[in-house]
Write a structure and sequence with these properties.
The protein is α/β, with parallel strands linked by helices and 616 residues long. It is built from 20 helices and 26 strands. It has a nine-stranded mixed sheet, with helices on both faces. Strands 5-2-6-1-7-10-11 form a seven-stranded parallel sheet, sandwiched between helices. Strands 16-17-20 form a three-stranded mixed sheet, with helices on one face. A hairpin with a 4-residue loop joins strand 25 and strand 26.
């Protein structure tokens, strides 16, 4: 097994996750099989209990692991399926060490950070690196490890020590260190300053790790004299100093690495020269070029609780963009704080209330993503009501589905106190209830998590058609509350259709309004399995409906029965292929991936928008 370690220096948020993913893409293009590990130095066992404002979205894996959002980057970039053990946290390591100590595994020794914690870290890395994640048998060729945080952080010290020991143990021909650092440009002098990176590398070397490659984040490409200076003071060959300068979208990063021969430096450090091929990234190049050609807009109102930080909905944004590219539309996300739609806001700050409603009414489609807690719930209900009554395309995910059911019960069934027991435990019409096996005493890992199967009950519904007329689909879940099965008959008699259920028939998974252009809610989170070139079916449906293409899409899907694939034509060009099993195949000409740019048109380090009215 070969290992590539990606560390960060100077400041956080430089884009280590995107860099690690991009390294994987280039190495995969060289013919290697890749797996990934993310190390998070926080004490939480996993990301499940952290606020999205603290750490961005919680990404959910097939096995139910609640992990860091960077694992979502890995899955999307590399088209792999990771496990919960691919995310290492301080909490997991210390818990495993303490469990061993309680069992007496250390035979009476004094348990210490060195060697017991550091050994546990190394053993974990070696064990997880051997798990195949690309659907093939046997371990991968290269494991890309990202160390979260910044060099010098107190909490990451045990991992630095462990990785220093690990690099010595596996040998220089099996270990390559890529250090991502910042080379700022001071406006006063307009010159690229190397001192922050010098200090960062000095600290890294003082901790027992020597970088093979420097990946320098800067607003523009490094000047040659700057490279020479960094080479001299950091003891890294100038040829191994890569510039990750600001670009219009993050899909440029693999191309930057390839063009600057980063793969050659990595392959040389791993003794893999001569056993790989030259990386051809024609598909990636096509994505970058076509991305810039999208001009006809489609506006989606994102009505949520965490709209102040777009990382809170990162996978949703990615899935929306994957779908918009297939529909050949430039995605514009209108951020609508759910609270701003409520009547209370109209009394306190009428201008804010009016602006929120103007955004909602000016959108081509409305999406209500998942969430927890009662803040903004009434605003989300108003958004669902507006979409239903005005026949605006609507897509509700998890809480967004529950909101749609509550609104329907209140407006159509005239059950004014209809609610979820999450928000009103005393309601006489509980449309949404706490799931039977849930825990009310512990928060972490107690939800219905991971991949679960949904069976279609109605064969001619929109969601079944979008999935390719299959009988079931597997999607990832993360919820504690679900639609009350005792109220389903009453709701369906009034016109709501629960077209997807679990195998027991008691859990409602997909709901539709049959007479609405596009009104779908799902209990699961389809955004976690969306891929560039393979967009999630229901996100594709939303964008198609919002851009006036849904009918032609469904007709094309409907016209092909008992055939393995069906090409959907747009402007005379094949844009995607849907298999009978519901999977979507990449088009031969490639497709454009997400653009996440800041207000200046440059991609930022974390790959998300700053929210100042920019497009995706």
């Amino acid at each position: 097994m070969k290992y590539v370690l990606v560390t960060g220096g100077v400041v956080s948020g430089l884009g280590k996750g995107v860099t690690a993913s991009s390294i994987g893409v280039v190495l995969k293009a060289c013919g290697l099989r890749i797996t990934s590990i993310k190390i998070d130095p926080y004490l939480n066992t996993d990301a499940g209990t952290m606020s999205p404002f603290e750490h961005g979205e919680v990404f959910v894996l097939d096995d139910g692991g609640e992990v860091d959002l960077d694992l979502g980057n890995y899955e999307r970039f590399l088209d792999i399926k990771l496990t919960r053990d691919n995310n290492i946290t301080t909490g997991k390591i210390y818990q495993s060490v303490i469990d061993k100590e309680r069992r007496g595994d250390y035979l009476g020794k004094t348990v210490q950070v060195v060697p017991h914690v550091t050994d546990a870290i190394q053993e974990w890395i070696e064990r997880v690196a051997m798990i195949p994640v690309d659907g093939k048998e046997g371990p991968a060729d290269v494991c890309v490890i990202e160390l979260g945080g910044t060099i010098g952080d107190i909490e990451s010290m045990p991992f630095i020590e462990a990785l220093g020991q690990f690099s010595y143990r596996v040998g220089p021909g099996n270990f390559c260190l890529v250090h991502v650092s910042l080379v700022p440009v001071l406006n006063v002098v307009g010159e690229q300053k190397t001192k922050p990176t010098q200090h960062s590398v000095r600290g890294l070397r003082g901790l027992g790790l020597t970088p093979n490659i420097l990946a320098c984040r800067s607003t523009k490409a490094l000047e040659e004299n700057v490279k020479e200076k960094l080479s001299q003071f950091c003891h890294v060959p100038a040829a191994n100093i890569i510039t990750l300068y600001d670009v219009p979208n993050i899909w440029h990063i693999p191309l930057l690495l390839r063009d600057q021969k980063a793969h050659e430096a990595i392959l040389k450090g791993l003794n893999l020269q001569g056993v790989t091929v030259e990386p051809h990234l024609d598909e990636w190049t096509g994505r970058v070029e076509r991305c810039n050609k999208l001009h006809e807009p489609v506006r989606i109102a994102m009505v949520g609780k965490y709209t102040g930080l777009s990382d809170s909905y990162l996978s949703v944004l990615k899935a929306l963009f994957h779908a918009s590219v297939v529909c050949q539309r430039k995605l514009i996300v209108e951020w609508v704080p759910a609270c701003d739609l409520e009547d209370a806001t109209a009394k306190e700050t009428p201008d804010v209330h009016k602006a929120a409603w103007n955004l909602l009414k000016g959108s081509d489609g409305i999406l209500v993503p998942g969430g927890f807690g009662d803040r903004g719930v009434q605003g989300k209900i108003l958004a669902a009501k507006y979409a239903r009554e005005n026949r605006i395309p609507y897509f509700g995910i998890c809480l967004g589905m529950q909101i749609a059911v509550i609104e329907f019960a209140r407006s159509v069934l005239a059950l004014q106190d209809a609610n979820s027991t999450e928000f009103d435990s005393e309601t006489s019409n509980p449309c949404v209830i706490f799931m039977p096996e849930g825990s009310k005493t512990h928060m972490g890992g107690t939800m219905r998590l991971g991949s679960r199967r949904t069976y279609f009950q109605v064969t001619d519904c929109k969601s079944a058609k979008l999935y390719g007329n299959v009988s079931f689909v597997d999607e990832r879940h993360r919820h504690r509350y679900e639609v009350n099965p005792e109220m389903v008959a009453q709701l369906e008699n009034a016109g709501l259709s629960f077209v997807g259920k679990d195998k027991t028939g008691q859990r409602m998974e997909i709901v539709e309004l049959p007479d609405h252009p596009y009104f779908i809610g799902v209990q699961f989170h389809p955004e976690f399995k969306s891929r560039p070139g393979r967009p999630s079916a229901l996100f594709l449906g939303l964008i198609a409906a919002a851009s006036g293409q849904l009918e032609s899409f469904l007709n094309n899907l409907n016209n092909v029965q008992n055939v393995a694939t069906n090409s959907i034509k747009s402007n005379g060009r094949s844009t995607m292929k849907v298999h009978q099993n519901g999977s979507v195949k990449k088009p031969a000409n490639g497709s454009v991936n997400g653009v996440y740019a800041n207000g200046n048109g440059h991609a930022n380090g974390n790959g998300h928008a700053n929210g100042n009215g920019v497009h995706y």
